[in-house]
Design brief:
Elements (H helix, E strand, L loop, with lengths): L11 E9 L18 E7 L6 E3 L5 H4 L12 H18 L7 E4 L7 H6 L4 E4 L3 H9 L4 E2 L5 H11 L2 E7 L8 H11 E12 L1 H6 L12 E2 L2 H10 L2 E9 L5 E8 L9 H13 L4 H27 L4 E4 L3 H9 L11 E2 L17 E2 L4 H4 L3 E4 L5 H7 L9 E4 L5 E3 L1
Parallel strand pairs: 4-5, 4-7, 5-6, 7-8, 12-13, 12-15, 13-14, 15-16
Antiparallel strand pairs: 1-2, 2-3, 3-9, 8-11, 10-11, 16-17
Helix pairs in contact: 5-6
């Protein structure tokens, strides 16, 4: 395998999660009797540029097809995060009705809807037709394609360069990262800004967030590696912020490297020093991560086995991709150990989780089933999910999180 950024030959394995189906390939009932495709899921690290990555076994066109079922707007906390960002960035960059805004991977318009309300011209880039339809209902115009240099040139020719380019949790989804970042550069006006958000590799390793590893996520980023990638394409990162989203993310601010009006923030040096101090360029950090993940699997399986022996009912909450990585790595099949997984998205309800084939149910059924344990699969939304399901305590129900360590919350 060659590094998707620098082309260096990679041989260092971070962790081998064996095989899994694509994490967002939710099944209809009639598909349960059909063959299911599994792909290798092995995390590697390049010891030249230190980009952490999986190989491209499942193509992006297969994953982000017309039946793609991830809709951002079903997380109220994520929509609020987007609203706060729009309010902040309009003020920070003095955006107006004369500005041009573009979001790559705009999903169902969860973010751009706030630019529409502010009467600032915007366009979304989103390959999934199912989410584009939802975005249109919010007044968000979308281009139904994958982003890269070819599309970037067309956008500039037809719409002009963009003052602000946004990409939230998309960088990890890009198989050809050089083509993607070069496309950002092409679309950016001379004094424009790019903001990207992505889970921070430092937190993934520190907090054992192995369930963020799945086929949609081709790469996992440190600030140092992203800085190197951007620099190779004539872009400079001038500021960075730590975010609490997705278990700890970074938001970078970038511009053309010739743009002298942007002062380099001291935040960059602080985070780069943190990464060096943690040892993101040392093999031992990755070995420790692997050992910690194996312990999590053992603890979760023991919990489920004990709950079954005691006659306790377990239900999951959040049919998220990260939960599918956890369940498939642990080898959980059917609904003997986990009765079902509740999810607020009606698009997922009535489907079955890929690999494990656990049914996705409506959250309304939690009150009917009365589980003894509610396992929160998207742990990054723990507070939101607990708040929405406090009522399980009426019958003595408890919440459970598995990452960074197994915890039972009374």
């Amino acid at each position: 395998m060659k590094c998707r950024f620098c082309g260096h030959e990679i041989s260092e394995i971070v962790i081998d999660l064996v095989n899994a189906p694509p994490s967002n390939a939710y099944l209809r009932e009639e598909q349960l009797i059909e063959p299911e495709v599994y792909y290798p899921l092995k995390l590697m690290v390049c010891n030249n540029c230190w980009l952490v990555q999986v190989d491209e076994y499942a193509s992006s066109k297969e994953i982000f097809d017309d039946d793609y079922l991830y809709f951002s707007s079903y997380s109220s906390s994520w929509v609020e995060h987007a609203r706060e960002y729009v309010e902040m960035i309009i003020d920070r960059l003095s955006l107006s009705s004369e500005s041009k805004v573009m979001e790559v991977a705009s999903n169902d318009g969860y973010l751009l809807q706030f630019f529409v309300k502010a009467k600032i011209p915007c366009i979304g880039i989103e390959p999934s037709i199912s989410t584009i339809s939802a975005a249109a209902e919010k007044g968000v115009e979308s281009i139904p394609e994958f982003f890269g240099t070819a599309l970037a040139k067309r956008i500039v020719a037809e719409r002009g360069p963009q003052d602000l380019i946004i990409g939230n949790n998309v960088l990890a989804h890009v198989p050809d990262i050089n083509d993607f970042v070069e496309g950002l550069k092409i679309c950016l006006c001379p004094d424009g800004t790019i903001t990207l958000e992505f889970p921070h590799l430092l937190n993934i390793l520190r907090y054992n967030q192995f369930d963020t590893i799945y086929h949609e996520h081709y790469s996992y980023f440190s600030l140092g590696t992203v800085q190197e990638i951007f620099s190779a394409h004539g872009l400079k990162i001038y500021d960075v912020e730590k975010l609490s989203t997705h278990g700890g993310s970074l938001r970078i601010y970038a511009c053309h490297d010739y743009n002298s009006s942007k002062v380099i923030s001291q935040n960059l040096g602080k985070i780069l020093s943190e990464e060096d101090d943690y040892g993101l360029k040392s093999k031992e950090v990755y070995s420790s991560f692997c050992r910690n993940v194996e312990k999590i699997r053992e603890d979760f399986l023991l919990f489920l086995l004990n709950a079954r022996k005691e006659g306790k009912t377990v239900v999951g909450y959040g049919a998220a991709a990260k939960g599918n990585t956890l369940l498939n790595y642990c080898g959980i099949k059917g609904n003997l150990m986990i009765r079902g997984v509740a999810d607020a998205s009606p698009h997922k309800q009535g489907r079955y989780l890929p690999g494990s084939h656990i049914p996705v149910i409506s959250p309304a059924l939690i009150k009917t089933i009365k589980p003894d344990y509610l396992v929160i699969l998207p742990w990054n939304l723990k507070d939101e999910i607990i708040s929405q399901n406090e009522f399980i305590r009426e019958w003595g129900g408890k919440f459970v999180t598995v990452i960074p360590v197994l915890e039972i919350i009374n």
